[in-house]
Amino acid sequence: MNWNSKKNGSNLVLAIHGYNDYSxxxxxxxxxxxxxxxxxxxxxxxxxxxxxxxxxxxxxxxxIYDIIFNLKKLKRDNPNNKIYLxxxxxxxxxxxxxxxxxxxxxxxxxxxxxxxxxNFSETNFWKSxxxxxxxxxxxxxxxxxxxxxxxxxSDNNKMLKRLSEDKLFIHEPTLRSLQGIVDLMDESFxxxxxxxxxxxxxxxxxxxIRDEIVPRKPIIQILRENKIKKNINFSVYEDSFxxxxxxxxxxxxxxxxxxxxxxxxxxxxxxxxxxxxxKLEKSPFYHKLD
Length: 290
Known about the structure:
- By secondary structure, the protein is of the alpha/beta class.
- The protein has 10 helices and 7 strands.
């Protein structure tokens, strides 16, 4: 998918979608960015969207390879443009692992939107055991949480209705896929902690408080354990849901991303993260496992 800027802009965003989603996830922010001369490009990760292997799980190394391949191609085709990596949810987790292991990517910065940074197996050990067991015995068994797990991903009901009818969105993942996303988040949690010790790239991290999909406590743990560097910008949105770019007021999140792209050098954090931590810790928790 490609959302061209309305004028010839010098900024490109390569956007990586979340779990069970696909490239069309960035239609709303992509159209917003186009008004400000920012071109957005997204592709379907292996096993998702329009790919022939839709529903098949591929581990994180495949996704990292594909992102690097697309990044290098983008840079070859647009040598004078500044490229930013944006990841939403699982896409943010994948990018977290990518940037921790690759220090010479042709990018100007990284944007993590409600990243799925979660040490699930560590914090939910007994819950993780049956999933791992049954995913090996019945890897292709499809699971639907409809009517069982009630979570709200966004306050944009029109968007959620369209998504529920979208055949390219995966509504019933397999047990192998569920185990795969757990493994991916576990790995990204470790990689993200390592990355924050010495971040290579300018990084913007956006966290929604009303997230019912990914719990907040793993991020709180990481911030407690790391002294955040000055090239990290961190924002917390008290009224935003997990799909914060597609919320009813999602444009305010896109606006912050746009402002950061154009002004990140003047927006560098030079303070402690006490205020951020206070807001994360003292705001109401909405995730069932928080």
